[in-house]
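Hello Y.,

Per our agreement to keep a running log of every chain we model this quarter, I'm adding this entry. I've kept the format consistent with earlier entries: sequence first, then predicted structure.
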Amino acid sequence: MGGKVALVDEYGAFLSAKDGRFKLMVRDGGRFKVKWDAAPVELDSIVFTVTGVSLSASAIELASKFGVDLVVMKRNRPIARLVPATYGSTMATWEAQLREATRSPSKLARLFVEGKVYNQRMVLMEHARRLRSSGRPSRVLEDAVKRLDEYLSQLKGVDSVEEAALIEAHAARIYWEGVASILPPELRFKHRLTKHKLLPGEKPDPFNLALNVGYAALKKEVWRAVFMAGLNPYVGFLHKPRSGRMSLVYDLMEEFRPIAVDRPLISLARRSPSKLIGDEAVAEVWRLIVNYMASSKPPLTSIITEQARKLARHVRGTDEYRPYKSRW
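Predicted structure for the entry above:
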């Protein structure tokens, strides 16, 4: 366990609750033994990363009572979570969100992209400054920072979702070229590969795989924040609604991707690239990102929660949304 997240990651494990505490039982030589136990106040979430596990009704009840997230993952992606029975009380916010998404989605779409590009720029500036101070300036990074500055300026005149998405795509290409220039060659990272860009049978390089795992951890946290704020995860502004797609979760993730995931992974890749290669890479990355979000100052988990609340106030008309912009 770490970062207030407990993992259920062994086949045949059984999660129960006894005397007000969670207990994870695993098989050991034909018998069950306690792998970990924790009070609900110690945990933000319990994440199931393998199939073939079970949990008791008492564990579900305890989690619901104390607001502990129960999240099921498959192939490093969250696919289900426990939702309290009282969640339907947020209908007024849902209605306001739907009106905003229907009438004027471009403003929020632009703000999500603005936050993302700004934070991408901050990540590249951080490494450009380090290389410059060490006497090894990087022209690639310096040029990329300037290009991202230009895209931020262009965003000010954007008045459609399509324009915002186009600038996001152009900025992403420049950003990942900059990232590729500072990663160790053994990671074989050339550009960002999503599942839609992979050829049949093609496997992502270690750094792309690490990004996938990191973004899954971020998605879990943003999903939780969206629920806590009473927003509908399926009604987005930048990402168009699609059956089963949590468009708003992807929207809110954008401004946090560079800071919550890219920044710590780039640092790990430059410091210890071997940790991103091998059987333990997925667990290593998951722990890194979860702990990074929880231990940063102020905690990114708290910032994500507050941004979701700001977004809810925005759609209700009681506040103006501003994207999260990181500092040094």
